[in-house]
C-alpha cells in the first residue's frame, strides 16, 4: 500500500519539484499525495466558511446559546484530535435539512435540522468528531486534488425560479465552498472518519457507543428513505452496514461507557424544540408556494411569524409570496424586515435588491445587490447591477457587470451576453 502511494507520488514530485509532493496524513500517518499545502488548505477554509454558511441557510442567530454549546462540544473533541492546532470553528445553521459538513482547516457546520434528531451530547459529539476527522485528515482536499468534486446543489434558493435559472447562480469561490461542503464522501473516508471520531470520543470522555447507535438509526432511516435525510446527511455521508459493523467492532475493542449528557442536551436544545412548530410552518409554506398555492402559503408563513417574529427567514419567504401575488410593496416591507434582522445574509439582500429594481428604486436596488455580492457573488446580482447601470446611462459600468454575469452559465449568462453584445455593437 505504502509503495503504491510512493510510486504514484514519484512522478508528481519529479514534475512539480519543490512546489508539492508527498506528505504524511496527519491523522492516519499514511503517506499520501499532497498538491495543496497547509497554508492553502487553511486559506481555503477561512475564505469559504462564511459564504458556504450562507448558501446553506445562514447562521441560526435566534439562539446564540445553542451555537456556544455546539462550539464547546466541538472544541472538546478538537482538542483530543490529531490536529488540535487547526483553527477549528463550529456553527449552527438555519436549515431544516439534517446535515453537517466540514471545510478544510476545521471549519465545521451543523444544521438545526440535524440537532433536533439527537437524544444526547454524546451523539452530537460523535457527529462533530466525524466532521473533525474529515477536516483533519484532509479528505475534501484530497478529493479536490483528484478532481472528484461534483457539482453540488444549492438548497433553499427559490420556489419561484426554475432550477435552470438558478444553475450557475453562485460565482467563483462561493460555488467551490458549496461543492466542498456538499460533495459525497467515499466509503473509505467515511470509515476513517468514523474510526478516529470514535477514538476521539473515548479520549474526550464520551461513551463511544453513541456513535454506533446513531449509525444504526441512520442506516434504518436510509432504508426507509426518511424525508430530508436523503438529500442531506445521507447524500454527503452515506450510511452503510459496513460502517455499523466496523464501528461496533472498534467500540468492542476500546470499551463502551462514558458521558452521555442527555439532560444537558435536552436543556440546551429546549428553545430549538419549542420554536420547531414555527420552522415546520415555514417549511410547509415553502412547499405550498412551490406547488403554486400562494394564499395557503401566506396563511402558513403568518403562523410561523406569530410563533417567532424575530426570524428573518420567515419574512423573506413572505416577501417572495407577496411578489408572486403581484404585491411588490408588501414584499418590499418584508424583505426590509429580513435585512434588518440579519443584515449580513446575502439572500435577504438579494431578494430585497431584486424587488427594489421592479419598483424602480435604483439606489436601494444597487445597494442591496452590491452588499449581497460582497458576501456571496451571484450571476443574477451582476446581471441586474448591469441593468441598473444601463438605466443610469453608465455604459462602462454596465459592460463590467454584464461581463461578470456572462462568466456564469445558463439563462442568466445568456441574457448577460445578449445585453453585452447590444452595448458593444
Ligand atoms: Zn462523513
Topology readout:
Layout: H1 2-16, E1 21-24, E2 31-34, H2 38-55, H3 64-79, E3 89-93, E4 100-103, E5 107-111, H4 112-115, H5 121-136, H6 139-145, H7 163-166, H8 172-182, H9 187-204, H10 209-223, H11 233-236, H12 241-254, H13 262-268, H14 270-290, H15 294-307, H16 312-324, H17 328-341, H18 346-358, H19 362-375, H20 379-391, H21 395-406, H22 410-424
Parallel strand pairs: 3-5
Antiparallel strand pairs: 1-2, 4-5
Bound molecules: zinc ion.
Beta percentage is 5-15%
Structurally, how many domains make up the residues? 2
- Contiguous uncertain segments of 5+ residues: 1-20, 150-167
Order of helices and strands: HEEHHEEEHHHHHHHHHHHHHHHHHHH
* Overall helicity: 55-70%
Indicate the overall shape.
globular
| Structure ligands | zinc ion
Q: What summary fits the major beta sheet?
A: 3 strands, mixed
Averaged pLDDT: 87
Strand order of the largest sheet: 3-5-4
- Ends: how far apart? 60 Å
State the total count of DSSP E strands: 5
Structural classification: mainly alpha
Radius of gyration from CA coordinates: 23 Å
Oligomer: single chain
Number of helices: 22
